Amino acid sequence: MNKLANLALAAFAITLGAACEPTEQGPDATAWAGALPDQRILVSMPTDDGARAVGQTADSYVWTRNATQHVNGLIGFVLTTVDTITDFQPTYSSDDNEYLWGPWNDGGLDPNETALYVRHDDVAGTYGWAIIQRPKESTSDADWVPVVAGEATPGETEDTGSGFFVIDFDAIAALNPAESTTGRFASRYEISADGVSAEAGFEDFSENGGPLANALYRYDQDGTGAGAMDLGLEADTDDEGTERETIVLRTRWMADGQGRGDMVVFGGDMGPFVLAASQCWDSGFDSVYEVTNLLTEEGDASLCAFEAAEWNEDAPEAE
After folding, report:
1. How many domains does one find in the chain?
2. Which end of the chain has fewer CB atoms at under 10 Å, N or C?
3. Cβ-contact 173, 185 below 8 angstroms
4. Which comes out higher in pLDDT, residue 140 or 13?
C-alpha cells in the first residue's frame, strides 16, 4: 500500500506539473487550503534511530510505534496529495462555492482520471471535499466515484480546526484492478491551541489478499510531544489456538521517549480469561519494568515514568 501511495502521489505531481504552471492562489483557494488538516494530526511519537536487539526493546513501544507508522502513512498520503493538488489554481469554480482541480490522467497504464472536488457550505462554515475518479475513457459525470471524501471545519484561528475523512479502498480497487488493498480507513481529528486529538479506524481492511482486519485507534498529543494512544484490534496472539483475540492497549509517553503501556487481551482462544499486562520503558525504549496478572514481574517499578496503570475505559476488568 505504501509503495502504491507513493507512486500515486508522484503521478499527481508529474501530471499537475505538465498540465499547468503554479500560480498565486486566489482568495477562495487560499481559504480552502487553510481549512485543510495538516501534519500536526500525525503522531510524532519519539523514535529509536539506533540499532537495538529486539529483546531489549519494550514490546508495548514496538506495538504503538508500528500502529502509528501505519496510520501516519495513510493520513500523510491524503494530506500530501491534497496539498500538492491545491498548490495550483482550481480548474473550475462556481458562484455556488464549488471548486474543481483536474481532472488529470498520468497516461500509459493509469486506467482512471482523477480530480479534487470541494464545496464550501456558507451556512455551516464547512468545506466538503472528495478525491474522485472515473475510467479515463468515460465522458459521463455519473461515472465519478469518490475514493477519498471528507469535511474540514476551520477553527476560530488559522491554526485550529476539525474534520474527518474516509478512504474507500474497495472503490479504489474496483476502478483499478492493479490495487490489492480493500476495506475502509477513516480518521476524525481536532486541532486546538493546546494540542491535537484524533481517532482512526480500519474496517474489513486487507492487503494483498490477507485476512480481514478491524482496528480502532485514538490519540491525544500536546505541544511538547508528550501524548497518549489507545489501540484496539483483533489479532491471533502467540497461543496454541487459531482464533483471533481482542487486544486493547493504552500507551502514554513523555517528550523524551519514556513511556508506559497497559494492555488487556481477551476473547478468542482466551475463553473467559482476561490477560492484563503492563510495561514501562526508558528514554532509550528499553523495558525497565513488566508485570502481568499471571503473577510474573520483572524489573524495577520505581523506574516507570508513569507510576500507576491506566486502562482503556472500554476494556474488561482482569481478575
Report:
1. 2
2. C
3. no
4. 140
